[in-house]
Each structure stands twice: as C-alpha cells, then as structure tokens.
C-alpha cells in the first residue's frame, strides 16, 4: 500500500504535509548543482573476499574503456563494469594517461586490449555486495565482471605529436537539458503543486515525481529505483512511499528496468537541480522504464512558507 503523508489536491495545488520541515518559514535556497558531479579519477572497484563465493571461471577479453565514473571491459556488443583483484591501484601519472596498476606490476592504459580469468557476478544481487568500494549509481545498474590473472593482448601506444600542427580547438559542448531549463523563460510556466514540510528542494522534486507515478493507472504499485540518493533522503522518501529501492538494487534487462532480486519491472526516477543560492532552483525530473520508455520535465522551484512551489517550464524530453 502506498504511503503518502497527507497529500491533498486543491485547485490544482498538491500539498504534502508530513512531520519535519521548517513550519512556516521559507526554506533556504542552496547554491550549486545537485547531485554534485565529481571530476577526476574514476572509481576503481576491487572484489572483496566472499568466502565460498567463486565466479564461474572462464576467459574473457575486451578493451579497457571509461564510462563516466567507472571502468568497463568492452566486448562486442556488450560492456561490463570491471571488478579488479584486491591490491589494484590507479594512476594518472603514466605517460600514456590513465593507467591501472595490478599487484603483479602490469600496467593497463585506457584503450588497451586485455584478457584474463573472469566470472560474471550474480545479477540478482547489487554489484556493491561484491566490492570493497561504494559503486556509483551510474555504474551500478548494468552487468559486472570479476577479472584476474590479466595479460595485455594489445597495447595502445602514446602518439608523438612533436613537430605537428596543433589540432583545431573542439567545438563548444552542447547545452545540457538542465542548462536549457535554466535559460528558458519561466513566465509561461504552469504551477504544478506545492510541497510543504520539506526543506530540501531535491526531496521536493522527488515527492512530486513519485506522487505523479503513484497516481497513474498501472504504476500505482510499480517498484521505483531512485538515482543518486543518500541515506537520509532515501529514508525520508521511504516514509512517504512504498516500493522504493536504491538504484544499485535495480538493473537493465533486455532494454527494460527490473528489480535485481525479483526481475519485476521497475522505473528509474532521478532529480537533478541547479540552484542559485537566492530565490530559485531549476530541475530536471525524469522517469525511465526502458531504452525506449522515458521522459523528463523541466521545473522551476521557488521557496514559499513551509516548503516549495513547483512549476513546469514548458521544456521536456521523451524517448
């Protein structure tokens, strides 16, 4: 049964009241992008000792590639997050760039083709159950492969550019969806609702999205996989709604989203914000059911007494 704390609808305005929040004060508008987007070295995942757990041994070969914050083994037509043997380290000081250093001393650079003994980790358990490190959500929803006894089959050589004309500068990056929302005229927006008793604007967006999903025919009891939520936010949302999971408890399966342990169909839900520290946040609220089943909406958030007012911005995407 869905738990929604005192959700009322009056004149098109959704008001969610629960314990907590700031009473009748306006919440403080933070400054920055949320969740924060870290840069630098990717996370290196290493396998922890799991007693009787033994992967199905076999040989696997592929190319070392970086995808966001994690390292993948690319092998046509698939890729899998790599879980390395304990003692593996990462270095950015190598002349070939980002390099993995194995306990044996072998160095593997991005683009190298490698081969090793491997085993696919069980898909019905989160990848983090088998790693010493926390697994970023961007890497936690696909397949993973444990690999050791590695050898390099093909090495990518560093290209000597001395004496050559420098390449032309790359074109400026295309604006992100959140940037598009931020630069869109908010005057034509439509008030969607007001979330009361909540200080965190990102939590307010999640509440709005989850209330919409739970109000839809066919999705009222659908499992929801929340992206990039910390323990506090997950606990708070779980008090309001049933059937919530962390992203790592879910995975992609044949183009759709499922709960790992049950294979039941689910939906990824995310909320990305950019706040000015004064009087406004813009947000992208998205839900994804599969490769060809997703949609995102741009929102404008303003602090009001006791919470947030949410308006659409007339900017959206669909797949």
Give a short synopsis of this structure.
The chain is built from three helices and 20 strands. By secondary structure, the chain is mainly beta.
* Gross morphology: globular
Low-confidence stretches: 1-17
Terminal Cα span: 30 Å
Class by SSE composition: mainly beta
Continuous helix count: 3
Radius of gyration: 23 Å
What's the β-strand tally?
A: 20
pLDDT average, as an integer?
A: 86
Main sheet specs: 10 strands, mixed
Strand content: 35-45%
Query: From N to C, what is the helix and strand string?
Result: EEEEEEEEEEEHEHEHEEEEEEE
User: Domains counted in the coordinates: how many?
Assistant: 2
Helix content: under 10%
Structure report:
The chain has 319 residues and is mainly beta. It has two domains: 96 residues, OB fold (Dihydrolipoamide Acetyltransferase, E2P) (Beta Barrel), CATH 2.40.50; 142 residues, no CATH class. Strands 1, 2, 3, 12, 13, 14, 17, 18, 19 and 20 form a ten-stranded mixed β-sheet that branches. The chain has a five-stranded mixed barrel with strand order 4-5-6-11-10. It starts with 6 loop residues before the first strand and ends with a strand.
